[in-house]
Amino acid sequence: MQNPPDELTLLRKMIEQCQEELAKAMLALFNCEQRGKLVEGALKEREDFIAKQQAQSKELQARNDALNARLAELERRAAIDPVGLGTALGKAVDAIQQGLMELQNPFVDYALQEFDLQAQVNLQIAADGRLLIRFPGLNEQIPPQNLSQLQMRLRPIPKSQEIRPEELQ
């Protein structure tokens, strides 16, 4: 059997080793806790980033949907070809003239002598090569560089006269 001082020394060494191991374990635990906090912070940042990206994605999707709806509305607006425009203007002038002839003024009669039209239009070329004229809507905002100035002057030519080329100028 060992004598007591040797046993005491041995016990002290074992206690020192346990204390060293305990200190190492506590340091390792502290480091793990710190890494855990860093990971939690990174996860929180990532969750916040994902939430922000999802909100931004929803906002962009809503804007995209609104733009697609506007595009569909603009595409539904019919463009008119020059012949159709001429026919529509002719009917409008006839209606104006008819209205003027129906006025009951005892002193004068009214007639439409000339009809001037100036309009900002969007010119398009159809797939078959025809020129199409599209008038912008009232609240539609089209960049000026996308618009053309359409100017027309209609004037009456009596049917009893022949139309000479110099009269059309």
Please describe the structure with a list of short key phrases separated by commas or semicolons.
single chain; 169 residues; alpha+beta; 2 domains; 3-stranded antiparallel β-sheet; 2 helices; rod-shaped
Itemize the secondary structure elements and their pairings.
Blueprint: H1 4-76, H2 82-101, E1 115-125, E2 131-134, E3 148-154
Antiparallel strand pairs: 1-2, 1-3
Question: Could you give a quick summary of the protein structure above?
Answer:
The chain is of the alpha+beta class. The chain has helices spanning 4-76, 82-101, and strands at 115-125, 131-134, 148-154.
Report on this structure.
This protein is α+β, with helices and mostly antiparallel strands and 169 residues long. It has two domains: 76 residues; 91 residues, no CATH class. Helix content is 55%, strand content 13%. The protein has two helices and three strands. Strands 2-1-3 form a three-stranded antiparallel β-sheet. The protein is rod-shaped, with a radius of gyration of 44 Å. The termini are far apart. The model has no long low-confidence stretch (mean pLDDT 84).
The total count of strands amounts to 3
The portion of residues assigned to helices is 55-70%
Alpha plus pi helix count: 2
Order of helices and strands: HHEEE
Measured between the Cα atoms of the first and last residue, the distance is 136 Å
